[in-house]
């Protein structure tokens, strides 16, 4: 009997997100079914970041309580049962007070944008393809502006069931990935954001709005003015799910 | 009227290879159909590397003769018509004596091996997943041994319709890709090979045999002895198509 921690990577393209929903293919349902098959008892997973439909993860963490004894090579046994778009990279007992969600100090998300006049067949469903010129310097300034404590009402759907819209962002920056994409003249830009917690769609609205800054359709001053409780409709589009990755959780 | 050059990238996973075959989805058929639609005349493509079913390309080159005038933005117009697993990265008139196949001085292939105890959901269909320990130093020595002129009979199917098995290899080396795979503890190893021409399955048999050297199942001396006209059955398995990429052509 105890608490176990799972480290996970999954390609979100064919999942209706993390959370179990009747009749949908979800990551949680696939994992709980694999765990029940191997442990012989029903298991309820707690997760660090409940990713939405289509969102990927390379550093997701989940935990569960078990009553018996964990079998040897649990990660390998789970990978033998799970579909190939999920991988358990580690599975081990953790402290009795470990809870993948409540123990997390920060989550790190990454959003990838393929800046290229031509699509890249190898980045289909893995990065947002952006055909128009982008001013990376302006986007970097926008990213720097969100660091700290702000009222992020503008960056989550109005219908969101959040009660606190004032949030801290520990780090936020754009970089060009060092490995060149397969198509000539393309650059992969990636936004990394670290925060104790994220609101629904927050990173995706930030990216959609920063792309307006990068394209010259929105000034930096206007972007900064969104950070003090502006309504959702003043910010930009929600960037699509397939560019977003949960890359890590800090405990 | 003239000769045009196309630069191409494609994900080979859903193609039955380059060459048109009745009833099969091939890269050549998709491109010739898109060209005919845009140019209003049938077009016959010549290609630098006739990739097999499942093999990818990031730097493929094709050429064709046209009778009218090339339309502006041909690459963009082709990409509008083509399926999303092909991208035309450049399309432009070339010299009257240009022939993508005969003018090529060398082809460069790359084979990617994910060395990892755990699969990577983001490398499914893009790299060979190898679960066992590999001695990269031994594999590098095997790669160095193939550079130069050798009788490569051992590295192509016995039924191959080649008449000359003595071939030159200009360069051959393994490297670990600088960008780390998504799963912890994984390394992406990649073999790059440059040669004036390749025989059927040559890179894939070389990789399959070098993996035996890397795993300690075959000595370097034995590997070297294959290079002087040994029969096919003395070499190792043919590594699967999905790890192989045509990355460039030198003219």
Structure description:
The structure is a homodimer of 251-residue chains. The first copy, chain A, has helices spanning 27-39, 74-81, 136-146, 202-214, 220-225; strands at residues 2-10, 46-47, 56-66, 86-94, 106-115, 128-130, 148-151, 166-169, 171-176, 187-195, 244-250. In chain A, strands 1, 2, 3, 4, 5, 6, 9, 10 and 11 form a 9-stranded mixed beta sheet that branches. In chain A, strands 7-8 form a two-stranded antiparallel ribbon. Chain A has 2 domains: 2-94, Pseudouridine synthase I, catalytic domain, N-terminal subdomain (Alpha-Beta Plaits, 2-Layer Sandwich); 106-250, Alpha-Beta Plaits, CATH 3.30.70.660. In chain A, β2 (46-47) and β3 (56-66) form a beta hairpin. By secondary structure, chain A is an alpha+beta fold. Chain A starts with a strand and ends with a strand. Chain A is built from 5 helices and 11 strands, in the order βαββαβββαββββααβ. In chain A, α3 runs antiparallel to α4 (202-214). Chain A is 20% helix and 29% strand. The model of chain A has no long low-confidence stretch (mean pLDDT 95). The A-B interface holds A 7, 9-11, 56, 58, 75-76, 79, 84-90, 117-122, 124, 126, 177-179, 182-185 and B 7, 9-11, 56, 58, 75-76, 79, 84-90, 117-122, 124, 126, 177-179, 182-185.
């Amino acid at each position: 009997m105890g608490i176990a921690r799972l480290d996970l990577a999954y390609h979100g393209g064919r999942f209706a997100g993390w959370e179990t929903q009747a009749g949908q293919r979800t990551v949680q349902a696939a994992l709980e079914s694999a765990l029940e098959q191997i442990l012989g008892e029903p298991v309820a997973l707690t997760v660090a970041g409940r990713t939405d439909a289509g969102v990927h993860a390379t550093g997701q963490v989940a935990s569960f309580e078990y009553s018996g004894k964990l079998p040897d090579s649990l990660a390998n046994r789970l990978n033998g049962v799970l579909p190939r778009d999920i991988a358990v990279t580690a599975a081990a007992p953790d402290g009795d007070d470990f809870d993948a969600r409540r123990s997390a100090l920060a989550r790190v998300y990454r959003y990838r944008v393929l800046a290229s006049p031509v699509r890249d067949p190898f980045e289909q469903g893995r990065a947002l393809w952006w055909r128009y010129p982008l001013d990376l310097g302006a986007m970097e300034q926008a990213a720097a502006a969100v660091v700290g404590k702000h009222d992020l009402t503008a960056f989550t759907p109005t219908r969101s069931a959040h009660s606190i819209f004032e949030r801290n962002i520990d780090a936020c920056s754009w970089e060009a990935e060092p490995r060149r994409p397969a198509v000539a003249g393309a650059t992969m830009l990636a936004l990394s954001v670290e925060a104790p917690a994220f609101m629904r769609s927050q990173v995706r609205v930030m990216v959609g709005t920063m792309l307006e800054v990068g394209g010259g359709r929105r000034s930096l001053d206007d972007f900064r003015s969104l950070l003090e409780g502006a309504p959702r409709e003043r910010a930009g589009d929600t960037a699509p799910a397939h560019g977003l990755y949960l890359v890590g959780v800090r405990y």
